[in-house]
Every structure is written in C-alpha cells, then in structure tokens.
Amino acid sequence: MLQAAPVHQAHQAQSLSHRAPIRHAVLQHHLAEGNDNFPLRGEFHCIGKKIDNHLTDAQLIRLCKVLHSGTVRLQLIFCQRQHTDNPVHRRTNFMRHTRKEGCFGAASSCIRQDTLFFWNLFKVIINLFNFIKSVAEFHSFVIMEDRQNSGGEPVNYQECIHYLEEDVGFSSIPGLERIQYLCDLLGNPEQRLPVIHVAGTNGKGSAVAMLSSILKEAGYRVGAYTSPHLERYNERYLLNGAEISDDDFAKEITLMRQLCEKLAAEGKPVPTLFEITTGAAFHYFYEKQVDVLILEVGLGGRFDATNVVPHPLLSLIMSISIDHTDFLGDTIEKIAMEKSGIIKKNCPVVLYSQAELVYNIIKDAAARMDAPFYCLNDAKIRVASQTLEGTVFSVKNKCFSLENLELSLLGTYQLENCLAVLEACLVLNKNGLSIPEGAIRNGLKNARWAGRMELCGKAPLVILDGAHNADGIRQLANSLSVYFKEKKVTLILGILGDKEYRRMAEQILPFAETVILTEPHSERRLDVFSLARSVSDFSGTVEMEKEIEAAYERARTLTPQDGIILCCGSLYMIGAMRTYLKHRKNS
After folding, report:
1. For 449-491, how does the pLDDT look when each residue is reduced to its tens digit (9 = 90+)?
2. Backbone angles phi, psi at 121, to 5 degrees
3. Does residue 341 come out as left (phi exceeding 0), alpha (psi in the -120 to 50 range) or beta?
4. DSSP assignment, residue 16?
5. Is the pLDDT of residue 440 over 70?
6. Confidence class of residue 329 from pLDDT cuts 50, 70 and 90?
7. What confidence score (pLDDT) does residue 149 get?
8. Most distant CA pair in the chain: distance in Å?
9. Phi–psi pair at 421, nearest 5 degrees
10. Residues 190-214: pLDDT tens digits?
C-alpha cells in the first residue's frame, strides 16, 4: 500500500492550481478565398486567466497574420503590465480555454460568440496592428506557422540539423542569461509548465523513463525532455513516449533560429545548441498542453539551461559522482553543490540514496531554500528474481509497502533508481498529483530506456550500455556479475578523452575475455592507441578497430554463439552502434 509521508506544513498549503498547464490565447479565423469582404467562419478561442477591466488596447502585444491557401490565421497574445515602476515585475497573463464563450476582460464581461461581433473585433485589431508593433510594454512573442502553402521558405529537417551542429556548434558555456533572453521572446512558457526537474550524474534518464511511464499510466499527458540523444534529436522530445515528428522539430528549431537572429541583431548573446534545444522544448510542450513536463538537466544544475524553471513540482536529484570536472569542479563536494542548484524556494526535493557527505550537502541546500526534503534511505528490498526478462522485487519502509513489483529496466543499479522514483511518486501524490498504485505497477513494468543494459541481439547476445564515467562502469560491472556469471564476454570499448578512462578500464576489464578498442564519433574521443596503453596489463586478447562498425564485425568473429558482446564507454559510441545494428538487421 502506498501511503503519504509527512510534508512541510507551509508546502501542504500550496495549491497545484497555479501550476496547472496554461495554454496560449488563440484567435483563429477562417476566411473565404479571394473575397475582400472576408466573411468569418469558425469559432473564437480564448485561453488563460481573466484580464483586468483596465487593460488597454496598447497592451495587446503581438498579432501575426499568415496568408496561405486563402486562409488567414491570426494568433493573438495578450499581455498585462503590473502596476509598478519596476519592469522586472511585468508578466504575461493568459486566459483559460473555453469554446462556448470567451471571457475578455473582467469575469463579468463576456463576449458572446456572435459572428458580426467577432468580425467587428477583427477589423479593430487589424487597424491596431501597426500601432501595437511599436508598444514596448510587453514580452515579445514570435509564432511559428506552417509555410508549406504560403510561398515562404519551407521548413527542412536536415537544414535544422545543419544549423544546430555547423552554424551553432557544440560549445558549452555556463550561465542562464542567454536561455532567459530566449524564453522572454517566447513569452516565458517555462514559467507556466508544471515541471519535475531531474538532476544527477547517473540515473537521470532512467528516472525520467520510469516517471514518464508511471504518470502516463495514471492518465496524464506527459512530456519528457532528455539529453543527449543516441541517434536522432527527436529522441530528446517525448510526448507520452512518442518522439516529436520531423516536421514539428523543424518548426521549433526554425522558430529558435529566428529568435536567435533577433537577439544577435539586438547585440545580445546568442544561445548555445543546448540552450536552443531547451527553448524549443519549453515552447513545444507548452503548445502540446502537457499536464507534466519531466525535465532532465543537461550538465550540472545551477547554470544549466533547464534551471530557468522557477517553481517545479519537484526537484529529483539522482546519483552524484565525479564527472565533467572541467565544468563542475574536481571534488564530489563541488559537484554536489552544482547539482543542488536546481532546488527552489519551498519546492520539494527528493534525493537518491547517497554517501553521507553528498547527503548532507543536498540536505543543507534544501534547508536554506525552505524546501521539504526527502531521501529514501531506510527501505528494505527483497528481490524475488532478476533475469534478462526483468526484475521482480518488493520494497518496504515506514511510508509504504509494495509487493512483487515488476521492473522492465535491466541492471542491478536500476533498483536504486526505482526507489528514488517511488519516493518521488509519494511526494507528488501528497502534493496533489494523483498517482494510484496500479499506475506505479504498470508504469515500472512498461518503462523503456534505450542504451542502458539494452539487449540488441541474440546468439551471441549483444548488450549496449551507455555507462560513460567511472561510477557508471562500476555499476555495469556489478550487473555483469549478477546476470552473466559464467559467460564469455567480448568487450567493445570506446571512451572520450576527458573521462577517467584508466579507472573505467580497470573496472570493466576483469569481466572480459577479449577486448576490442574503438573510437566514439566525437571530437573528444580518446584514440585507440592511448586507450591501448591504459589496458596494457590486461592478460586477454586486445585488438584495435578505429571504426565502430568494423569493431562490431570483428567481435562477432571472435565471440561464440553462446557468448556476449558488450559495448560500453560512451553514449556517442552506443548511439552509433544502435544505428549500425538496425542497418545491419534491415539489410
């Protein structure tokens, strides 16, 4: 039975109503083709909160008119300035969706859906168009439209990839200034999305996968934004488990490009690649009207682009260990402090069970922010079975007891990840997000996460694991000792040069009979000759194949049918290997 744990009284009093997903205000008119009188067809949609009686026409912020195939589509965003001289306090107010009547003004002042009335309103708005362009008292917002039939430049998926990777590039620059500029131009969707924010060194993606699956089973419309992708950028944007379409991705990136050009023209700093994809995520999931967005931190926490979210439903911090020392610091204390940067005032925090040093750092950070703090460090786990079909286990602590849970994700480390997710569900449930026990059971059973102890072939068994730092490799090694005690393993190993590659090799090599060294598809790759020097003490067979495809074919030659081919060391390598295996199977 899943029961609620005590929550800070101040937090109990908070209502989730102010975090409910709020959509854009849309005024959409369909007009007859080739007719100057433009008879109006369709309906009026008004979304968001009421606007005060004293709102003036000058505070209508932007109107975009797009002509294509005889249809005029108008999207209107309303903005209200707070009564203060401080421009920081300006914000955008929207109205909630209604299809029968649109409330425009005070609650008592409703616009009836009369065609003539709306047509007159339309003409007034058109007359105001040139005037409102010059009004400075608003948040700028740009709307992306499908131009395929409008005669404009078509949106192209591959051009967007080229823009991201060639024009923008892969540089990583800490700071929130650029992403905040971008979000401001978007109308600050990040402030209106109900967000579960997930940080940590390892386990973030698995936690996102489990939470997404559970919330979907609970009946919610769930967005998930993760990084990096393994094969395609589309993987970063999941809506109820389905990837964003090529067309939608291209539209979002084209919109981001337009806004970046606007920022550059104004002399403001231009966002990085990750900041662009993050801005696209905020806009995309806001447009898709998700009930919850599960947002994975890209790097660290404090200065990560995702950290512009002001009031998350929950901050979830997974396993913390040494990684990305150039950006986050060279000690576990420094890294933990960076991760704790996602903790927000009065917003609950759930921590993966950590070493005492890290536990105390996160707990103290939560106390400074008056954030209710939870860490499931007293749970008792009983594993009934752990095979390649999944794990069956029971868990019990002072707050809940769950028997015979089925977890689809493989790896002994997934049990600890799952405990953090269960605690997160407990806190979310207590704070108004209904998550029944059945949703938890089905969600864990149906969760999928590519590239983590992923089975991609049989005879020989092919396993891909994205372990790419020392702690990840250690956890993978522990899993091998449980799942494959008597199996002969051929290891395909490729690592980035900025990782603890010597330590990683030392931890995984004892489980291998043969090692094939290769190079990930990244400028940061460690060349096979340097990697070979770090494994010089290995007593088994060591071969070098720079190309990942050649490394796999060599592994198949060396591995018996009842053996195992294990690929690990880099997400870049795992992504390329997945693509190659699919191509190989199809051909």
Report:
1. 999 999 999 999 999 999 999 999 999 999 998 999 878 899 9
2. -65, -40
3. alpha
4. G
5. yes
6. confident
7. 36
8. 85
9. -65, -40
10. 999 999 999 999 999 999 999 999 9
Give strand pairing partners of 316.
198, 350
Report d(CA 348, CA 369) in Å as an integer.
Answer: 10
pLDDT at residue 261 tops 60 = yes
Residues in the chain: 587
406 pLDDT band, cuts 50/70/90, is very high
Instruction: Using the predicted structure, report yes or no on whether residue 46 has a pLDDT greater than 60.
Output: no
Tell me the β-bridge partners of 428.
none
Peptide bond into 174 cis (omega under 30): no
325 confidence band (pLDDT: 50, 70, 90): confident
User: What are the DSSP calls for 123-145, one per residue?
Assistant: HHHHHHHHHHHT--SS--B----
Q: At what angle do helices 413-430 and 204-217 cross, to 10 degrees?
A: 50
Kindly state the tokens that stand for 447: 């969760």
Report CA-CA distances (Å) from 428 to 183, 228, 362, 365.
26, 26, 19, 20
Q: What is the DSSP letter of 84?
A: S
Angle at which helices 177-185 and 273-287 cross, to 10°: 30
What would the DSSP string read from start to end of 495-558? Answer: -BTTS-HHHHHHHHGGG-SEEEE---SSTTBPPHHHHHHHTTT--SEEEE-SSHHHHHHHHHHH
Q: What are phi and psi of 250, to 5 degrees?
A: -60, -40
Mention every residue, 6+ apart, whose C-beta is less than 8 A from residue 471: 201, 202, 319, 321, 322, 323
Q: What is the DSSP pairing of strand 195-199 with strand 314-317?
A: parallel
Least confident of 106-110, 233-237, 364-368, 375-379: 106-110
Asked whether 518 and 549 are in contact (CB, 8 A), the reply is no
* pLDDT tens-place string over residues 333-342: 999 999 999 9
Instruction: Kindly tell me the burial class for residue 327, based on how many C-beta atoms sit within 10 Å of its own C-beta (0-12, 13-18, 19 or more).
Output: middle
Quick one: tokens of 538? 């290995």
Residue 461 and residue 563 in contact, taking contact as beta carbons nearer than 8 Å = yes
For range 414-424, the mean pLDDT: 96
SS (H, E, C) 178-230: HHHHHHHHECCHHHCCCEEEEECCECHHHHHHHHHHHHHHCCCCEEEECCCCC
Q: Check residue 426 and give its pLDDT.
A: 96
DSSP secondary structure letter of residue 245: P
Average per-residue pLDDT for the chain: 80
If we measure between CA atoms, which residue out of 471, 523, 477 comes closest to residue 497? 523
CB 274 within 8 A of CB 171: no
List, as one string, the DSSP characters of 327-369: HH-SSHHHHHHHHGGG--TT--EEE----HHHHHHHHHHHHHT
Torsions phi, psi for 372 (to 5 deg): -55, 135
Q: Are 117 and 40 in contact (CB under 8 A)?
A: no
Contacts of 206 (CB under 8 A, 6+ apart): 409, 414, 417, 449, 452
| Banded pLDDT at 326 (limits 50, 70, 90) | confident
Q: Average pLDDT in the 419-434 region?
A: 96
Measured at the alpha carbon of residue 423, what is the angle toward residues 414 and 451, in degrees to the nearest 5?
Answer: 25
- Contact at 8 Å (CB) between 80 and 93? yes
pLDDT band at 129 (very low <50, low <70, confident <90, very high): low
